Amino acid sequence: MKALLWDVDGTLAETERDGHRVAFNLAFEALGLPWRWDEVHYGRLLAITGGRERLLHDMQSRSDAPALSQQREALAAELHARKNAHYAQLVRQGMPLRPGVRELLDEGAADGVRMAITTTTSRSNVDALLGAHFGPRWAGRFDAVVCGEDVQRKKPDPEVFERALQRLRLGPLEALALEDSPGGVAAARAAHVPVLVTLSAYFEGATLEGAVAIGPGLHRRDGWRPALPDPGEGRITLRDLQHWHALADSVSQYA
Ligand code: XBP
Ligand code: MG
């Protein structure tokens, strides 16, 4: 296991429920639109990757959305730009990393494991979140940063992982992806990258297949499937990831 490939939304922080969703609603309000996305509705919309794509999808079921597709595109672009500006403000005001994330990033770096960001959110959103936590030179902590603008097809397409592996010059089995959602798992699997799932608020009850391990978060050692040989107190460590990563070779789910 030579690299960790980190998803952003839901994996590094609860940015979907507390960040993007809230920011979309602020953008609707700013443009005088009566649309509001509550937590349940937004959860359904997460099946559509990409904020602009999500807006266009939602407009299909709104009678007060513009009739012409060109107008819809323009409105989605405007809303999306505003949403990202609100999002950046929200994360600067304080958007905690999920517990155990910072510790694992630090441990991996100290141990020589390479780090990459593999997200299909916009680069400005990643910059806002990681800049708030690690300062303006946050990108120096990562050997590759692949975002929505860098791919032609967003998750669940494997392109984001393929690009990261190219940049790292690694094969898929030399990496471990960290994800929180079915779409992320599907993308990693399609790229033949072993994937571990730290379930986020929106996907706690999701059925996920093909992950090397699924658990409630990197801050605890219990509640994981498959269970660790030595559960108990404490957070998930690099050694635990290596343990699960080694299972990927033996259980042949990635063959
Ligand atoms: C997350 C997404 C994004 C965000 C919103 O992708 O689907 O669309 O919800 O960000 P990932 P944008 O799981 O790969 O991080 O508005 O920038 O699309
Ligand atoms: Mg995610």
Describe this structure in words.
With 255 residues, this protein is α/β, with parallel strands linked by helices. The protein has two domains: 3-14 and 97-254, Rossmann fold, CATH 3.40.50.1000; 16-94, DNA polymerase, domain 1. The chain contains nine helices and six strands. The chain has a six-stranded parallel β-sheet with strand order 3-2-1-4-5-6, with helices on both faces. Helix 8 links the parallel strand 4 (175-179) and strand 5. The radius of gyration is 18 Å and the shape is globular. It starts with a strand and ends in a 5-residue tail after the last helix. The mean pLDDT is 95. Bound molecules: xylulose-1,5-bisphosphate and magnesium ion (MG).
Name its key features.
alpha/beta; binds xylulose-1,5-bisphosphate; DNA polymerase, domain 1; single chain; 255 residues; 6-stranded parallel sheet; Rossmann fold; 2 domains; 9% strand; binds magnesium ion
Outline:
The protein has nine helices and six strands, in the order E-H-H-H-H-H-E-H-E-H-E-H-E-E-H.
Tell me the strand order in the biggest sheet. 3-2-1-4-5-6
The CATH superfamily of the largest domain is known as HAD superfamily/HAD-like
Q: What's the total helix number?
A: 9
Give the count of structural domains: 2
**Average of per-residue pLDDT values:** 95
